[in-house]
Write a structure and sequence with these properties.
The chain is of the alpha/beta class and 316 residues long. It is 39% helix and 21% strand. Pfam families: Lactamase_B.
Length: 316
Amino acid sequence: MRVIAAFFTLLCLTIGLNAHADDKLPPVVMELIKVSEHVYYVQGAPGAATQNHGFISNAAVIVTDEGVILFDTLGTPALAQLFLQKLKKVTDKPVKKVIVSHYHADHIYGLQVFKDLGAEIIAPAGAEEYLNSENAETLLASRRADLAPWVNADTRLVKPDRYVDGNEEITLGGVTLKLIFNGKAHSDGDQSVLVEPDGVLLIGDLIFEGRVPFVGDANTKIWLERLKDMAQGKLTAMVPGHGPMSKKPQEVIKTTVQYIEFLRETMGKAVEDMTPFDEAYAATDWGDFIHLPAFEEANRRNAYQVYLSLEQEGMQ
């Protein structure tokens, strides 16, 4: 009886410890989805940045015989810990490098988890503009309130070990990755990754699959150029910054190109004709895009940002 009682006590203690550990992880559904021989990804839920405990973006994994390379690290350290937990189910190899698509909060607040494990952080040139801005600290303070306890006083901005300002190749464990420097497209600095042996493109936030993209202060002219360049490649699959992966990358890219081109054409004409934004927006037929998720939340703001940016282009 004493042996049984001791066993029962140990079992309860173990369950209690596991439950306590789980309390430190966000209660979200996160699945590591296999894309190809070397590539997996996790897909965040559609929604605003502070919804779903911050799990609204994607992150990808490249598994090799010599170690793991990550592409982005999600929007909170707690999500990154859960991501790491999922990763350990498919490989026991260490995380050697993290390639950052761009420095927006929903992709980078998990960086500290992997930096503390010794991973090299590689970011696109231009990201330093965000890191050195007042907005970076202001947003972090805001997220500490909106995403507590997952973003807290221990959450910090992690600077990269190096910046990339052009295309380059990285090979680990016989797997070659092509880093594609996109410059100032969606953000102050963007990059994508082509996993060459698999033909898989990790494109970052140049694509929001299945929804209206977030334009923000993007340079839509460069954004379009980069998308059109990538559409020429021979790809087997593409993992976007938001939304599900696609086995038909060219079709997905085409949809985003059409949306951004429409914004530039309609708002460009309004700027040229000196039509006030509110009048121009109300007169525009949004019928081809109004059915897309996040249209109500994002489209008007996107149109306004493009309107302002085209005014600036016209002054140059």
